[in-house]
Amino acid sequence: MGWQISKISRDMIPVPYGRNELAEAALSRSGSLRSFIESLPDLVCLLDCQRRVLVLNPNMRGLLGKSGDGESGGSVPWFFAESEALEYAQEDAAALREGRPRHDRERRLVLPDGTELRVMMHILPLVNSGDGVVGLVYVGRDITAMRKLEQDLRNANMRLSSALTALKQAQMRIIEHERMNALGEMASGIAHDFNNALMPILGYSDLLLNKPEIFDDRAEALNLVRGIQTAAMDASQTVRRLREFYRRPGDEERSVGDLNAQIRTAVVLTKPKWQSEKTAQGVRISVETDLGEIPLVPAKESQIREVLINLILNALDAMPSDGTLLIRTRAEAHGVTLEVIDTGIGMTEEIRRKCLEPFFTTKGEAGSGLGLPLVYGFVQRHRGHMAIESAPGKGTTVRIWLPAERGGEEAAQKRHMVEAIKPLRVLVIDDELPSRILLKKMLETDGHAVEMASDGRSGIGAVTANAFDLVITDKAMPDMNGDEVAAAIRKIRQGMKVIMLTGFGDIMNEEQQRPAAVDAVLSKPVTLALLRETIAGVFFGQVRGG
Known about the structure:
The protein is an alpha/beta fold. 46% of the residues lie in helices and 20% in strands. Strands 1, 2, 3, 4, 5 and 6 form a 6-stranded antiparallel beta sheet that branches. Strands 7-8-9-11-10 form a 5-stranded mixed beta sheet.
């Protein structure tokens, strides 16, 4: 009679459990079956239909050790963990009843000394062609070491993940500390600049009001007015620089930067450091710029400014005595070269090689070692190059090359759009009389016909009664705010162009909060040039804020 371990068909009727002698008879009559089981490299256990253990092959006996002697006792599998024994028995019974194998069943074995093992088993019905299912065969392998390795890897991964998270948090704290140090240097500069800007505004206006005869000298009067305008623009830029204090990390801004403009800003923002603080220490530092005609660069202006401030502060720290800091730009090789040259103490070759490594510093506890690495990271991200030349007593030159922005035609395109705008009929809505009058005069300068409304409701009434090409409205107004006014105007006049001019303009553009019925948001105060550019933009489909 031939015996085999195989899967049988679903319609086979299982042998009653009482015929367990068939498995024993099979073993006694077929020496080849026993030899086959004994020779298998896997862990093998043969059971009858009542799950009594008949045979353990050498590998299984070796795994179980002394407890393998239980084979001769005909006991049910004694080596399974007690907590899972019932579950395993039910699974074996189903295999016997259905005559279908159960593959890849992970089972837990426990030795008498308490050692726990993991075994991956196939539960195979033992089938006789004439008698059907007469027993079970466990065929498996020891996966204890593999499971332990997997758990060790999971534990190691968790530890590495925790360490990486802690490292990132520490890095963010250090970067934020570095950023706050730079902002701290800028804060006093902003207050200083604002007071300086107010000085000519108050002084020149006071002269004009108290000495009206100055108006008889047209040239002198124009000079004073130009001085007031320049000071007012400086004050406006100072207020806008305050955005750097509340700008959240990740806030979006245009990704094209004017490097020369940001150099001028960085020089002003660091002025308290290189002028006031150094002078108080008895040190005279001269900061000079040599800025060539250069194209824009494809980088956010806030990032450019942060890089420049880091370079300037780093250079100043390297000049403990009188010296000069020169910042130079040139257009070359389809890009822009920036040089920051100081006459400080310089670096040895060893320090120069290490100065771009994160956390390397020669300033002791006063430095974080992240200034130059942050600059280098910025340059790498923007596909640029950076080189440092230095020698003890001969100062340091940091040379950076950045690719040029491929969009130099933008300015010319804007000029063409502004020139193409024909005289418009414009409604100005603002609850502040000085703002209304100023806007009226600015718009009339370009030949536009202007009407004014002092609040939202009267503005809506004017739109209902008249045909306008453009409405310029404030945001914060009593009764109806600018958002509501713009929405109502759109319902009355589909396609009506609406510009919102508000003191909240910078914040609204920063937070991308332009109302749906508004074509562009401008920030007060506004220049005639920016107003012209924005009007042209909304009529030519290039919506923008400013």
